[in-house]
Structures are given as C-alpha cells and as structure tokens.
Specification:
The protein is 23% helix and 26% strand. With 337 residues, the chain is of the alpha+beta class. The strands form three sheets. Strands 8-7-6-5-15-14-13-12-11 form a nine-stranded antiparallel sheet.
C-alpha cells in the first residue's frame, strides 16, 4: 500500500504530465488570432500551466524548476553490475564520485521579476528582446480554403513579464509572464522537469542532439522521433534572442543532423540571403528554415502546407509600448502566467 507522501507525489506527477508542453506543430502559426488571444487571456502561452502546477503544490511566488529525477533505462539496456568488488591494487581511498548536476531554481516575485537563474543572454541593459513577425496560414471556412495573414510584435524576457501585440492594435495587447521554463530535459540520464537554467544544456550540436532525443516522451508530440526532434529544435530557434548564440548554433546543428536534411545557401520569401535547411517529415511535408549565419537568428520558417512566418525584425528593446500588467495577462500571479 502506498504512503500518503507517495500518493501526493503520484497526484502531482499526473498534474505535471497533464500540462507539460507538447512538442507538436506550433499552434500559433496556424490558428486564427481570436483563438490565440483567448488562450493568452486564459493565462496560457507556454510555461503558465506548468508554473500553475507548482503553485498549487507550494503556493504563489514559488520556485520554478522541479528537481532532477533519475531516468530508468529501458529493459535490457542497463549495464550488468557485479556485487563482488574488484581486488584492491592500492591502499589509496577511491576518488569521490561527483553528484549529478542540480540546475539552479528560478524564483518569480510578485512583481514578475525573476531571480536565481541566469538572466537574459544578450549584452547591454535593454530589458526586452523585440520580435516583429509576419505570418500567413491557410484557413478553412466551410470548405473554402483562404490565406490569413497577421503581424505580431513580442517584447519577451527571461527576467520580467512581456507583451504581445497583434496587427499594431494596442487595445488588444496581452501581457505574458517571464519566459522562465525551458521545458523538460534529460541530461546524463537525469530528467529535469521544467528546467529554468539553460547552462544545463550542452552547446555542442552532437551532444545537444543526444539530449533532445533522450528527452522525448512517447505520449508527447506527433510523428516519428525525427519529427519530434525537428519540432523541439525549431521551437527553440523561433525564440531567437532568448537563447544565447551558442545554443542557437547548436539547435541549428541538431536540425542539420537529421536524416535527409538538405542544407544550402539561398533566400527567404522576402528575398533576404541566408542559410537554408529543408526537412521532410514522416508525412511527406517539407519544412524549411532560413537563418542569418552571422547571428543564428531565423529569417523565415515555412511549411509545405502553405504556412510561413517571416522574422522582419529582431533586436533588444529599451521599453514596451504598454506596461505588462497582471490585468493584461489575465493571470492570478506572474508565476502562473
């Protein structure tokens, strides 16, 4: 019979599993603005639901970043260990074994500021990473397929709340919480749920690719493992300056290492020169990423279904046009946004 602590742990695990971000195709690229706004107003957008689980367990203003849990290797893959120690060849004491890396924990204060983990990765004192995108996506209305377009502005930060504005309409702006949670990752056999410290992830493409594959979960995402790896890397690249240049280059290398990927020099739909990656998923759909090699920032991402997003501007910003408030976010606390 399980103890009270075990029952509580199982309940918390079920709650986390119910809201851990999926690595599906990003809905923001293909769903009309009204649905995105409704989701943002409900306090969604990435880390919100995850932070809510922890808030329910430990209270508002909680520490983000669940402690590491040891991954159990699949049956038949664990190394055979002998219970008989090898004969000693020296009287010197054995070298101590280094403990598993424990990532730093992020604390979200009542005003939305974050402490405890590395801050925004760009140089300078500007508080936001600003992104202006233009997107086109197919829309099906009563069997008639049309192409919807939208311009989105984002003021994001890992250290403070941010802002979303669609088509320049400040009256419909939505605030979002600090972009603290990086997802659930397995590094050296240890799963870090709701990781908040990017230093835990390697910056070498081959090592990061192994981490990404080890972090996949069978019941999360769509398609083959290669499809899921592509989506994880694409999502990280779409976040641009919220990752340092070393991680951006590594995630690009993760995509480049996928079977069948084509790498070439070319131009995006706006005629800007860049480096191209083309990946064909298990359903035969071709996905293309274009980046500026000097910065590693995306210029465009597009798909064979007719959808595309162009990154027209990416830079640091000294201020947002509106103060991101908890009322604009529609959340109870910043830790739950």
């Amino acid at each position: 019979m399980s103890t009270t602590d075990e029952q509580y742990a199982e309940m918390l695990r079920r709650r986390v599993e119910a809201v851990v971000p999926r690595i599906d195709v990003e809905v923001d690229r293909v769903v009309p603005r009204a649905r995105r706004r409704r989701r943002a107003a409900a306090g969604g957008l990435g880390a919100a639901a995850l932070a809510l689980v922890l808030t329910a367990g430990w209270g508002a203003g909680t520490v983000l970043g669940v402690g590491p849990s040891r991954e159990v290797p699949p049956a038949g893959t664990a190394a055979v260990r002998s219970s008989v120690p090898p004969p000693s060849t020296t009287d010197a004491p054995p070298e101590p074994t280094a403990p598993p890396t424990v990532p730093a924990a992020a604390v979200v204060a009542e005003d939305g500021t974050v402490t405890g983990v590395p801050g925004d990765p760009w140089d300078g004192d500007e508080p936001y990473w600003y992104v202006l995108t233009e997107s086109s996506f197919p829309a099906n209305l009563d069997g008639v397929v049309t192409s919807g377009q939208e311009r989105t502005e984002r003021w994001n930060s890992r250290e403070r709340p941010g802002l979303l504005v669609w088509d320049g309409d400040l009256g419909g702006a939505s605030a979002i919480g600090p972009r603290v949670v990086l997802g659930s990752w397995v590094v050296a056999g240890v799963r870090h749920d709701m990781l908040a410290d990017p230093r835990v992830l390697p910056t070498q493409a081959d090592e990061l690719a192994r981490v990404v594959r080890a972090s996949l979960q069978a019941d999360r995402g769509q398609g083959t493992d290669d499809d899921k790896v592509f989506e994880v890397a694409r999502t990280a690249l779409s976040e641009g300056g919220l990752w340092g240049p070393e991680h951006r280059a590594a995630f690009w290398g993760v995509v480049a290492s996928l079977p069948g990927v084509e790498v070439a020099q070319g131009r995006d739909g706006a005629g800007r020169a860049g480096e191209l990656l083309r990946y064909t998923d298990s359903g035969g759909v071709v996905h293309q990423l274009v980046r500026a090699p000097a910065t590693g920032l995306l210029l465009e991402e597009s798909s064979g279904d007719g959808s595309w997003t162009r990154y027209l501007e990416q830079r640091t910003a000294a201020e947002a046009p509106l103060e991101p408030t908890i009322a604009l976010a529609g959340c109870a606390t910043w830790a739950t946004c």
